[in-house]
Write a structure and sequence with these properties.
The complex is a heterodimer of chains A (about 160) and B (about 150). Chain A is α+β, with helices and mostly antiparallel strands and about 160 residues long. Chain A has three helices and four strands. Classes of the chains: A alpha+beta (about 160), B alpha+beta (about 150). At the A-B interface, helix 1 and helix 2 of A face helix 1, strand 2, helix 3 and helix 5 of B.
Chain lengths: ~160, ~150
């Protein structure tokens, strides 16, 4: 009699336990699906913005290189570097783009190399980064820029 | 009803628990499968498409207000426009050189805050070529291209 009663109690508890477990699993399944969708959206947007900022840095460095070359195509490496810094500072003061990362800071601090190669200059800026944030997601992209600027041409050079 | 009998009954009922868990797993699998097949793929709304982003990063020569010509990224030129360094018509004329085929774009300068990068948006615009959109004396943007 006692065993029968015990069996009923345990069986009842198991059923309740299974129902609770099942409900929790279903609830977490549906809410989990929604969360990942929202998260992937914001990760996607942050990633896209970071890539945009990186491309901006490349485009801006190309312009700065071209402008500097037009001012002093016959300069020495040191002179070229100085003019490049001034040109960058002028652009930074007027049109600083918040997403440009540490590009302007690196140039301002002179943390880049300029090497004269015959009629061309090789500009190398290492340790650049850009960041993009969306909701709780933050993406940082690290990269280097190496450009070779000459008469009528600015090309990305091999590192 | 002592502890031993409850424990014994628990051991006896263990296969039942296994069956219940199995049914639960089956139910969840069916639900997952149904949701995958029945749910429509979510469409993503983007403020910039890759083409539009490329447009913002294009380098164009803009005629400045001091009559000099300056090579600039469109994004920076938009900032220059906002700080009155470029005439609105010259700005629009320079953008016109970027237009591909018969595409029509809208360049909106919605927000004058520091984060101007996210405030500049291209999108399909209505009617006419190179129209300046002005609302309450505040220039909001341009339409350009045959829309």
């Amino acid at each position: 009699m006692l065993n029968k009663k015990s069996q009923e109690i345990v069986f009842g508890m198991l059923v309740i336990f299974a129902i609770v477990l099942c409900s929790v699993a279903i609830y977490s399944f549906f809410t989990f699906g929604k969360n990942t969708s929202a998260n992937s959206d914001s990760i996607f947007e942050a990633s896209r913005d970071a890539e945009f900022n990186k491309q901006y840095d490349f485009a801006q460095t190309k312009i700065l290189a071209r402008r500097t070359f037009s001012k002093c195509s016959t300069c020495s490496s040191e002179e070229f570097k100085e003019i490049f810094k001034q040109t960058s500072l002028e652009t930074e003061n007027l049109y600083k783009f918040a997403g440009a990362g540490n590009l302007y800071g690196k140039i301002r601090a002179g943390e880049f190399d300029v090497v004269k190669e015959e009629s061309q200059f090789r500009i190398k800026i290492d340790g650049l980064f850009v960041q993009a944030e969306k909701d709780f997601n933050k993406i940082t992209k690290n990269f280097d820029i190496c450009l070779r600027v000459g008469e009528n041409s600015v090309r990305i050079c091999q590192q | 009803m002592n502890r031993k009998s409850v424990l014994g009954a628990g051991i006896e009922a263990f296969p039942v628990l296994i069956i219940l868990v199995f049914i639960m797993a089956l139910f969840i699998t069916i639900s997952m499968g149904a949701s995958v097949f029945l749910e429509k793929p979510e469409t993503k709304k983007l403020s910039f498409t890759p083409v539009e982003e490329n447009l913002l990063l294009q380098t164009v020569k803009f005629k400045m207000k001091d009559n000099t010509e300056r090579e600039m990224i469109v994004l920076d030129a938009a900032k220059a426009l906002m700080i009155n360094k470029i005439d609105a018509n010259n700005f629009a004329a320079a953008l016109e050189t970027l237009r591909e085929g018969n595409k029509c774009y809208f360049l909106g300068l919605k927000d004058l805050s520091i984060q101007y990068a996210t405030s500049v948006q291209f999108g399909p615009g209505p009617e006419k070529n190179l129209q300046v959109l002005v609302v309450d004396n505040l220039m909001l943007g341009y339409y350009y291209g045959p829309c």
